[in-house]
Amino acid sequence: MGKVNVTLSIPEELRCKMKKFKHVNWSEVAWKAFEEKIRREEMKKAAEEMDKLRAENITPEWSGVEEICKWRDASKS
After folding, report:
1. Whole-prediction pTM value?
2. What is the radius of gyration, based on Cα positions, of the chain?
């Protein structure tokens, strides 16, 4: 996978503090933070989609226990 450059704006005070830790790979720190944020946003979106499907498809009469029993009984036949 190729890499691209991204320009970020950060407060000057933060940049001064970062310069004190020259051994830290700040590009890697940012990269991992971006990945983590994307992972969380994807999980949030998936949860919202599941909630939407659940709200649209489940009626008050539906019972998960009854459904499991029905499928279990059907597989024994």
Report:
1. 0.64
2. 24
55: which 2 tokens? 């709200």
**Does residue 50 sit within a domain?**
yes
Query: The tokens 């830790």 sit on which residue?
Result: 21
Output the CA angle 77-63-42, nearest 5 degrees: 105
Q: Give kind and range of the element (H or E) at residue 70.
A: helix 64-76
**Which of the four pLDDT bands, split at 50, 70 and 90, describes residue 8?**
very high
Whether residue 15 is contained in a domain is answered as: no
- Give the number of domains in the chain: 1
How long, in residues, is the chain? 77
Q: Would residue 37 count as lying in a domain?
A: yes
Domain of residue 50, residue span:
23-58
Q: According to the model, what pLDDT value does residue 30 have?
A: 96
